[in-house]
Predict the 3D structure of the following.
Amino acid sequence: MSGRAFAVAAVVVIAGGLLVAGLGLNQYYYFAAYVVLQYVVLATAWNILGGYTGYVNFGTPAFFALGAYTAVVLIKWLKAPLLAQLVAGAVVAGLLGLAIGYLTLRLRGVFFSIATLALTVVLQTMFVNWEYTGGARGISLARPATAPFYGSYVQFVFAVMVILAVLAVATAWCIERSWIGRGFAAIRDNEEAAECMGVPTLRLKLLATTVSGMLMGLAGAPFPFYITFVEPASVFDLNYAVNSLAMPMIGGTTTWVGPVIGAVLLGSAQQIATVTISSELNLLLVGVILVAFVILAPEGIVGLVRRLSRRDPA
């Protein structure tokens, strides 16, 4: 997709999202769409590190929760507006990504993945014992009485998440088309060879962890006003780690559009299953679909479409 076509598509999506937010539909539809868009951001963020550079990250809940708790602190301390929460959540989570990247990126394969999983456990333990943010009991928060441009704050937060999803996808698209994206691909294909060719592998990996962490924190920052109750069990949920990994793998990990496809399809299926059957089936649904794709289409939907399009019709 050319730059002009992508820009037009981004404007159309944002305009459409803002229009839908103003229609005043049933509140559940905004809640459900918010979750799907949230996973678009998380899956795209995961793919920048896990898909583009090949470093599998199980620490998505840590960065998401850090963005959410940063917002909680700002709400409780300064009654900060949502924009300040978004900026602070992204910055704090990005700094954590930079720090953890510097400490762990010399690890490779399963050792790096275990280190990111340990990060989630450490942060969860810290917030469970931090009374200022409610500790293990959690903390209830009241949304502002009025919402800018909309009658309901739920509609406003949905509109914000539409913009954040487009911003995350645009970031991935820009990376993929730049020399940074080519450097990431070189690291994914053969890191030793990339170093021999002069690719600044450590700096690029630090950039990947920082950008990925920022976007995950950005996804978590609106969570307090979306749910109005924050507790460690909800923001450190295993679903965030599993879904943010599964969605890019189902859609395709080597392109910006793969996580979007995976998040929309799998996220929508989960929301439908939650309403029609049971929310407890979400992880089972993810597991079954992921196993099927690993066996039948290991390159995801995008890879499957490309393979079928190259096949000789004769």
Q: What stands out?
A: The first strand starts at residue 139 and ends at 140. The two ends are 28 Å apart (CA to CA).
